[in-house]
Every structure is written in C-alpha cells, then in structure tokens.
Amino acid sequence: MGARKKISAEKRKEALKTMYFAKLQNVPTSPRKMRLVADMIRGLEVNKALGVLKFSSKEAAARVEKLLRSAIANWEQKNERKAESGELYVTKIFVDCGATLKRMRPAPQGRGYRIRKRSNHVTLFVGSKSNNEDQN
Description:
With about 140 residues, the protein is α+β, with helices and mostly antiparallel strands. It has helices spanning about 5-15, 30-40, 45-55, 60-80, 130-135, and strands at about 20-25, 90-95, 100-105, 110-115, 120-130. About 45% of the residues lie in helices and about 30% in strands. The relative contact order is 0.21.
C-alpha cells in the first residue's frame, strides 16, 4: 500500500471512531422498497423513528427498526451511558444496491422471461443534534 493511500485509510478509520452507525447487508428486498422506509425516518429523533417503524405496514420497516436499535446500542457502547430521550437523531441513512440474483421464468411459446431478485445494503448513522449542526 502506498504512503498516501495508507494516510488516507488511517484518517478514515479515525473519523469512524467518532461516528455511530450500523450496517445491514444483503437484505433480500429491492432497494426501491427499502428507500421508501428510509425516507420515513431520515432526520427524526430516534424514539419517534422507532414508533414510526413499529406501526408501519411495510415489511422492510421491521428490518430497519432492528438496525436502528443496533445503532443506538453502538452509541451507548461507545459513550458508556444510556441514551436519553430527545438526545439522539437519525443523522444519515442510505440504501445501496446489493447483489442481484438472475432467474428465468417460463413464458409463452418457448420463451423465457428474466427475473431479477434484487437485494440491498442499508447504512444508518445516529448522532446528537449538536454534532449534526457542526457537520453542516
């Protein structure tokens, strides 16, 4: 590894020590459906976001709720204290495409239609309101 690349990697690792996040990878849901759920909680306070996800009728909401609880636990672990009400916010959440499984479905007249079974990766960052204002 070159010197510049190594310095850049070390800076990135140091920055991650001050960020509180959780990742969910290879979720067998299309990214489009997951983005609808992610948009519902972006920027909300975590207790409010948990309520929104709990009562959402979307199947992806249960997975994101579990991910949010994991991110909160990561914050509590790094800060060695419990999160108080109104302290934590969902600062960033984004959904990326994962691997796509390609399958064939029988179609009329001997043809085959292609089916793409998509998956996605979700990354969720939590932080306090003062941290969020400092970054912008």
